Amino acid sequence: MTDTGTATVPGTDAAGGFPYRLIATDLDGTLLRGDDTVSQRTRDALAAATAAGAAHIVVTGRAVPWTRHILDDLGYDGLAVCGQGAQVYHAGEHRLLTSVTLDRQLAGVALAKIEAETGPLYLAASRDGLDGDVLVGPGYEVGGDLPALPLTDASDLWSAPLNKIYIQHPTLSADDLAEVARQAAGGFVTVTMAGAGVVELLPLGLSKATGLSLAARRLGLKAADTIAFGDMPNDVPMFGWAARGVAMANAHEELKAVADEVTSSNDEDGIAVVLERLSA
Q1: What's phi and psi for 109, nearest 5 deg?
Q2: CB 252 within 8 Å of CB 239
Q3: 220: phi > 0 → left, psi -120 to 50 → alpha, else beta; which?
Q4: With 50 as the cut, is the pLDDT of residue 16 above it?
Q5: Which of 36, 75, 232, 252 is surrounded by the most beta carbons within 10 Å?
Q6: Residue 192 banded pLDDT, cuts 50, 70, 90
Q7: pLDDT tens digits, 92-140
Q8: Global confidence as pTM
Q9: In sequence order, which residues have a C-beta less than 8 Å from that of residue 138 and are 6 or more positions away?
Q10: Greatest extent of the chain over all pairs of C-alpha atoms, in Å
């Protein structure tokens, strides 16, 4: 891990009438609607909570290069946890504060063990850094219009530090692939499912909870101060860390099973529904 400075972010005073001092929100399927926008109602609810003294931290599986434009569009200038906890990013300063990279030798062993069980995988990889490229190999399907570079030479996968490797399989579902990968390689990497068709190999022990705890500490806040919102299994560790976990109606059943509450869907302002109730 590298640490390149300490951020001072407003919104760390006691949260007045709002019962939590920290609001942690996942991005895709949670804060973002299906059209990749944030509703005005949700913006207003977050603004009211932060005006009452709560801090808001975005906690996303996306690495910084796939997150920065969304934060800029929101006018978000606080801390964000990116790359499944690998990166703590100061959005207002466009500065990477901490970064954890994948041990490429262990990742290579992990891939070999998984492919011994599944056969060949489709691969993509996220390179470290503020402007780290995402490399996409043959067969791998990237959702939306996110920027990526083709991976035409397999050796390029290992030529620079990585935050994560993405894996897909031609026939296995993401749930099944994640389970096989954990069984085959869980001692070498952390395996997480971050969305439909999105299974990731991360540094061993890394999770959203890791990055969120680092970001919260910079604000002088703790797990007991935190309410977290999410929709996928990669949010399970974050729910385990936070005082309260709220799953969206559209959430994966694995996350709903550990949530303290299930709210409306991301397209029905689920975050706002909860924040408005807590602010009343």
Answers
A1: -65, -45
A2: no
A3: left
A4: yes
A5: 232
A6: very high
A7: 999 999 999 999 999 999 999 999 999 999 999 999 999 999 999 999 9
A8: 0.92
A9: 122, 151
A10: 57
Residue type at position 254 = E
Alpha helices by DSSP H, the chain: 40-51, 64-74, 104-118, 174-185, 208-218, 236-241, 253-256, 270-279
Token pair listed for 90: 């100061």
Q: How far is CA 142 from CA 66, 183, 257, in A?
A: 12, 25, 28
Least reliable range by pLDDT among 15-24, 99-108, 191-200, 210-219: 15-24
The DSSP secondary-structure symbol of 166 reads: E
Nearest to 29 by CA among 258, 213, 256: 256
**Res 264 pLDDT > 90:** yes
Residue 248 and residue 14 in contact, taking contact as beta carbons nearer than 8 Å: no
Q: Please name the residue that has the structure tokens 């606080």.
A: 78
* 198: β partners: 195
